[in-house]
Design a protein that fits this description.
One of its GO terms (cellular component) is membrane. Belongs to the multi antimicrobial extrusion (MATE) (TC 2.A.66.1) family. One of its GO terms (molecular function) is xenobiotic transmembrane transporter activity. By secondary structure, the chain is mainly α. It contains 16 helices and no strands. It is globular.
């Protein structure tokens, strides 16, 4: 009897090994399927982001050819526009993201259209006081210690940016509306048209009409106007509006409470991070030596970080949509799985971004300006900027998970502590006390990104996903979840 039992042990162990291998294979297949679904959203968003970035880079290059003061003034203007306007509009718009993605997952499509219309109205009302401030910004810049010549260029450019501000009140909500329904073709098509026409418009305004820095800002507005038209037409003919739009009515002016409860903390969250980068440009203008070159270099480096940000932000949008869809469909385990897969992908994204930054350290600055000081400062700072991406990519993806699960207040608290409780004091100490120099700004960012990534990951590890599923039900006001007719494990990008 004992001999028989002993002889069966290897066989039992063999079956156990086979079972373990089978489970590992099944897990890997699920991981690959989730990666496929994330990329189905992220890749089109990356292409869209690259085209939008191309438009921004074209504007910066035209600005750099106008001279050192114009480059510094334009960079300062963009910083002020981001701090006081663009970040606010984008932040408020992201308040509709959780509602829209969860409504799609719960098959409550009319909620998506209602949210879009109300969000557009909220943004347009918000843009009015911002526009008034932009019209009278020059005394404020001089009061803050900016050089008069640079402040003059910045004020001229900022006034011409008001049409762009108003157009963004439509662009951001329409993009979220389309993406949360997995319709990415309208986003790519509109961005492609905008990129194609942006250079000719700049050439006409610069070389034919001689509008200078005003022409650069107006070119962005004209391009964005065409972008809105193409985006609306693409959404219309792709059928993305068919079951969700509903049309305008007086009801659009009611029941703003649920949106504002998410939009306001989302705005604070976005602004805290955006403001950091723009605050660095303003602080560079207070640098004790070569302030003009420091501001210009900041503008060039922000272009580099903006390019790299396209990749983690696209993955962040994808995981936000996936998490929101699964929570809306009452599948919290799938939402958790999607977040873990996306976080793993973010590590490789960060490594790739770091290598890119370090490789191009000696050539990046020359693409934007011929000023030798700006080029040298850019080459000095880019390796540190590359290290920042190791923290930026994971924390950006974690931000997407929090957005998809409708937790903007938590994200705002983490950003406040990381960027302003850690990063800003480090910048002040290194740049203005220890006199480390220009690179001290980026060591401060590195400290902030590391702390932010750690706090975000700890938060996600301790998330109660079953409770998040219940919160999604309460947010949508749905008594019973409907099973989504489109299979949530097989997201397809539809034309």
């Amino acid at each position: 009897m004992n001999d028989q039992i002993d002889s069966s042990v290897p066989l039992l162990k063999h079956y156990e090994d086979v079972g373990q291998r089978s489970r590992r294979v099944q897990t890997m297949l699920k991981v690959m399927e989730e990666v496929k679904q994330l990329l189905a959203i992220a890749l089109p968003m990356i292409l869209t982001g690259l085209m939008v970035y191309g438009k921004s880079m074209i504007s910066t290059m035209f600005m750099g050819r106008l001279g050192r003061d114009a480059l510094a003034g334009g960079s300062l203007s963009i910083a002020v526009a981001n701090i006081t306007g663009y970040s606010v509009i984008y932040g408020l718009a992201t308040g509709m993201e959780a509602i829209s993605s969860q409504a799609y997952g719960a098959n409550q499509l009319p909620i998506i259209g209602q949210t879009l219309r109300r969000t557009i109205l909220i943004l347009l009302i918000t843009a009015i006081p911002i526009s008034v401030f932009w019209l009278h910004v020059k005394p404020v810049l001089i009061l803050c210690g900016q050089e008069p010549r640079v402040a003059d260029f910045a004020a001229i450019h900022l006034r011409a940016c008001i049409p762009t501000l108003l157009l963004k009140c439509f662009i951001h909500p329409l993009r979220i509306y389309s993406r949360t329904q997995h319709r990415t073709l309208p986003l790519m098509l509109s961005a492609a048209v905008a990129l194609l026409i942006h250079t000719p418009i700049n050439c006409i305004l610069q070389f034919k009409l001689k509008l200078g820095i005003t022409g650069i800002a107006l070119a962005v507005g004209i391009t964005d106007f065409n972008l809105v038209i193409v985006l609306v037409l693409a959404i219309r003919y792709s059928g993305a509006h068919r079951d969700s739009w509903g049309g305008w009515s007086l009801q659009c002016f009611k029941q703003w409470g649920p949106i504002l409860k998410l939009a306001v903390p989302s705005c604070v969250w976005v602004c805290l991070e955006w403001w950091w980068y723009e605050l660095m440009i303003i602080l560079a203008g207070l640098f004790p030596y070569r302030a003009t070159e420091a501001v210009g270099t900041m503008g060039v480096l922000v272009q580099a970080t903006s390019l790299m940000y396209i990749f983690p932000s696209s993955l962040s949008m994808a995981v936000s949509t996936r998490v929101g869809n699964e929570l809306g469909a009452n599948q919290p385990c799938k939402a958790k799985f999607s977040s873990l897969v996306a976080l793993t992908c973010s590590v490789f994204t960060g490594i790739g971004a770091m290598i890119f930054m370090m490789t191009l350290r000696d050539v990046w600055g020359r693409a934007f300006t011929s000023d030798h000081t700006v080029v040298a400062l850019t080459a000095l700072a880019l390796p540190v900027v590359g290290l920042c991406e190791l923290g930026n990519c994971p924390q950006t993806i974690a931000c997407g998970v929090l957005k998809g699960s409708a937790r903007p207040k938590l994200g705002a608290h983490i950003n406040l502590g990381s960027f302003y409780g850690v990063g800003l004091p480090v910048v002040g100490m290194l740049c203005f006390v220890m006199k480390v120099g220009f690179v001290g700004f980026w060591y401060g960012l590195l400290a902030a990104q590391i702390v932010c990534a750690i706090l975000m990951i700890v938060t996600l590890v301790n998330t109660n996903w079953e409770a998040e599923g219940e919160r999604a039900r309460e947010l949508l006001g749905v008594e019973e979840y409907n099973q989504v007719p489109h299979q949530t494990w097989e997201v397809v990008v539809q034309p």
